Each structure stands twice: as C-alpha cells, then as structure tokens.
Amino acid sequence: KALELLDELQTRRLEPDIITYNTLISACVKAAQWEQAWALFEELQRRGLEPDIITHNAVISACEKGGRWQEALALFDEMQTRGLKPQIITYNALISACEKGKQWEKALELFDELQSRGLEPDLITYNALISACANGGRWRKALELSGDLQERGLDPDLITYNAMITACEKAGQWERALEVFGKLRKRQGLEPATITYNALISACAKGGQWQKALELFDDLQERGLDPDLITYNALIAACEWGGQWEMALEVFGKVRRRQGLEPDVITYNTLISATARGGQWQKALELFEDLQQAGLEPDSITYGAAISACKDSGKSEKALELFEDMKRRLPSGAPTLIAYSATISACVKGGHWQKAFDLFEELRQLNMDLDLVTYNAMLSACVKGNQWRKALDLFDELRKERGLEPDAITYNVIIAACETAGRFDEARAIFLEAHSKDCFPKEVLSTPGALDLRDLVLPVARTAVRAALYDLRRGDEDAEESPRFYAAPAGDSLRLVTNSKDGRVLLPAIDALDENILVTDPENPGIFVVPLGAILRQGAAKPSLSEE
Asked: Which residues of 275-284 are buried (b: 16+ CB within 10 A; e: fewer)?
C-alpha cells in the first residue's frame, strides 16, 4: 500500500522527501520486505536526498530482518562517515543482525562499544545479545548477561527467558534450562509459551531425559497451550535419544491425528533414527518409503539414518543400494560424511572391505573433513581384509595429518589388526600408548599379581598378557628401554581374570610356554594361573614378541 502511494505521488509529479522515504522504508521493514527497503534507500540517494539517522536505522533493521549482517555493518560504518551518531536503536538492530548471522563475538563487541559511547543498553539490547550468545553456544555468558540486566534495574520478559533456555538447550545443559524455567514460573505476570516448552523439551532430548520431556509435554497441554510440529519433533527426538522407539512411534501417531499438522522431513528423519537405534531396520525402511509417499523429499540426513539402520542390522547390500540412490537423487550430488561413514561401516560388517576402501578414497577426493568415526570404520575394514600395514598407515594419518585423538574403539581395532597379523611388537607399543592415556579400564591392574581382562576385547586381552609377560621376562633390566606395563608384585604366579571358562583363547599370547602351563583356578572358573617360574625359564631379558 505504501509503495502504491509512492507511485501515486510520482504520477502527480510530486517529489517525495526524506520523511516520505523513511515512512516507506519502515513499512517495508514491518512487511519483511528488506530487498524493497534497500531499493528505496538507493533510490532516495539517486534523487539527491541525504539519508538521516532514521533512514539508516530503518535500513539496518531491514538488513537484520533479511539476515544480511554484513550489509548492516557496512551501513553502520557509512552513517558514521556521514557524521551521524548511532543511537541505542541502531545498536539494537546491529546486534540483532549479528545474532541472526551467528556472529556472537561481533555482537559482544558492539555491546561494549555502545557503552563506551555513553549509551544505556535496554531490554531489547540484552535480549538480542543473549540470543546471539545462545546461537554461539555461549550459555554461561547468556546467563551472566541475564544477571547483568537485572542489576541495571531491567525486568526480564518472556523473550529473555526463552533466549536463556535456548542457550542452555543448544549447549546440552538441560538441568540449567529447567532452573531457568523454574524462575520463569515464579515470575509474576509471565507465562511460558509453546516456544518455551519447545526449547525445554529439546534440551531434555539432548540430555537423554525422555521421561522429563514427556512430563513437560503434558504440562504444556494442561496449561491450555497448543503443541506445534516443533514440539512433536522435539518429543520424538527425546524418545530417540532415550532409546524409546515405540514411544516415538506413538508420538508420531499423535502428529498424524492432529488437525492442521503434517509431519515434515525432520519428523521422519528423527523417527528413522529412533527405529534404527532400536534395531528396527525394517520399520526404518518402511518410514523411509512413507516419507516419499507423503510427497516429501529425503535429504542427506534421511539417507544417513536409513543407511545406519541397515548397517546396524547387517544389511550391507541394502545400505549400498540406498547410498547409490542418494548420490543420484540429492541436488548437491555429494552425500554427507555421516552417510559415507555409515556405508563404509555397513560394507565392513558385510565383508565388503574392498568397497569400503573405494568409498574412503572417494571421501578423500571430495576433500571432506574426515572424522574419527570414519577412520575407525576403515581400521575395521583393514582387520577384515588382513591389511595390517594399511591399518598402521591410517592410524598415523588420523593422528599426524588430521589431528584426531584416538579413542578406545580406535585402539581396540588397530591392536586387533596388529595382533591378528602377528605383529606383536607393534600391538604392544600401541597398547602401552592407549594404557598411558587411560583408554582401557583401570581395573586391568587393580589387583596385585593379576590381570583383570574381563572388560577387554580378546585381541587386546592377549596383547595385555603379552605385555605383562614381556615385563616379567626382562625383569629389572632395560628399565629405560620402554614403558613398563606390568610392575606390580606378582608372588609366584600371574593370575588372568576372564569371563571365559576356556583359557585356550589366551594361549596364543603365551606363545613360548607349554600349553599345559595355563592352570585353571579350581575355586574360581574363569581365573587362570601362569606360574612365574615357567615364565622366567623362557627367557631372554629382551624377548621379541613379533612373528616374521
């Protein structure tokens, strides 16, 4: 309507002045027409009009609404060049623009700057700044600012509380989010809204608190509030993270029955992930088909979740089929790292280790930032393919070239690769490194004279036995040669505590000893005894563990 009036003015050959343009630009801001506002700003300058502080404030607000934080900052610099002094409304719009652009550091910088100019921040300033910190994952700073605004005599409103809860939600601080919610409920004159509950339920989902999420959902309805699709999606996510796939499907049923609500891709993605986590691969694929029948397009997350469902259920052929379908159908033409990692893992589980290597090479060519999950899957492929040298190369690559820190899974797999290939020296060295980083349970050495192997996978258990025998054979010599794993007093024997009643699984680790030397503790099945005398008779001070 405002633009029609401008056309009418021009038709009558009346010249619009700066006040006219300011009014028009403000109307465009309110109508979320930021591009039109920008066009009017350029037009008034072509007409020789000089934009004033009101003009700049309005156009900066337009940029904020359009998510154009760089343009907003450029205008801010331009207005100061023109000799115009920014007002608190200027800074509020700028901070809001930075918040939408996820530029939390710049938002804080502007906050400091406005105070240095002698301007007094208001509630709008703080709300925008807390939201900026929320988007930047700075929940502590967000809560600190909420205290600061109250010290200035300002009263937090619902926007403030929602922003604080969102800050806690994004950082996975569900308990803090509930604390803030408790303060909101005590605040006279303020009532939580659906958006409040959405952030709370999402926070509980990330914290694995699915039961609390359901309680909040019930509370929302008891207050007479209407849950929206975001509410239901957050609730399904809570069920997913809590391993409650059946409950997730119940919530999905409520969405379908609710008039005016239609499940979106996020709904289906979360459901497919929930059923995949629950080992329900057939249901996951059924939901994958339902999504398409509903007229929705699967995205990379949908495919990744469906592929993961197949991977976890050993359906490697179906995983590969989905992967190829994704490569054909996605607009980007490039699957995500999650999809690649899941497909590689599926190939490993299905015995297609060469295909896993091919996919890994594709990843490298795409220059993706490979993560530890992908490397762990590739190390497993090396074990299946008896590629111990390749495994060691990848182990070096992930640490030295990618800067990744191996976890317990990494160490388990690389030790298995070396142990299976008879590379016992390499396995022992890696085991000692992992042990020094506390990647294995401390209980392994908790009892003097014994190795507690119950929480170790078999290749690592064998390597632990070899490392202990190595140290016992070399005695006190070569103390500086390498780290010592087993140094506890052992009495006259080494006791091996296992979950098995068959000690033969450990015999390959006692390679130089007579098989009959492994004695079962008659009072404790699963505990095997190796006499120290037999160990010491075998050996050299510096035994070699590896086979050629």
From this structure: bbbbebbebb
DSSP 496: E
Rounded distance, CA 372 to CA 341, Å?
10
Residue for token pair 């390499």: 426
Tell me the pLDDT of the chain (548 aa) as tens digits: 555 555 555 555 556 778 888 888 788 777 777 777 878 877 778 878 888 888 888 888 888 877 788 888 888 888 888 888 889 988 998 998 888 888 889 999 999 999 999 999 999 999 999 999 998 889 999 999 999 999 999 999 999 999 999 999 998 899 999 999 999 999 888 999 999 999 999 999 998 899 999 999 999 999 999 999 999 999 999 999 888 999 999 999 999 888 888 999 999 999 999 999 888 889 999 999 999 999 999 988 899 899 988 887 778 888 889 988 888 888 665 567 888 888 888 888 888 888 888 888 888 888 788 889 889 988 988 888 888 899 999 999 999 989 999 999 999 999 999 988 888 889 989 998 998 888 888 788 877 778 888 888 888 988 888 888 887 776 655 555 556 677 655 567 777 777 765 555 565 665 544 445 555 666 666 677 777 665 555 543 334 444 43
The pTM of the full predicted model, rounded to 2 decimals, is 0.73
Paired sense of beta strands 450-452 and 527-531, if any: unpaired
Are the CB atoms for 486 and 472 separated by under 8 Å?
yes
| Residue carrying the six token digits 């159908």 | 329
User: CB within 8 A of 431, min separation 6: which ones?
Assistant: 411, 415, 460, 463, 464, 467, 485
Helix 174-186 and helix 139-151, axial crossing angle in degrees, nearest 10? 20
Token code pair at residue 501: 């009643």
Contact, 391 vs 382, CB < 8 A? yes
Question: Closest Cα to residue 512, out of 465, 445, 451?
Answer: 465
- Tell me the three-class secondary structure of 229-251, residue by residue: HHHHHHHHHHHHHCCCHHHHHHH
